[in-house]
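Appendix B: a complete holo record

For completeness, this appendix reproduces one full record from the ligand-bound portion of the collection. The bound molecule is zinc ion. The inputs are the chain sequence and the ligand SMILES; the output is the full three-dimensional arrangement of the complex, encoded as structure tokens. No fields have been trimmed.
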Amino acid sequence: MSIGEYPRFQIDLGVVCARCGRTTVFDAGAVAWHFTQKGIRKTLPVDTRLFKCRCGSRDIKTIAVPVESRPNPLPKPPVRLVPLYVKDEGKPRR
Ligand SMILES: [Zn+2]
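The structure of the chain with zinc ion bound, as generated:
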């Protein structure tokens, strides 16, 4: 089974923080797309390297969350400004 198959079973990906208890829920299809772009394997168990809780903890586990548990309406996603590109100044960083 792959994370990319979750949507077919009406499952979202929940990321649970062991430190603060917060559960952050992701659209599994979006996670699968992201993993593909990053070259991360999508087979289970879910590779959690990319996830970090807002409290700063990386001590997390993933759970399956039924899509039907989504709040309606969904809260607005956080607004993030993504740069077009970064100009390399040619100064090596250490
Ligand atoms: Zn946390």
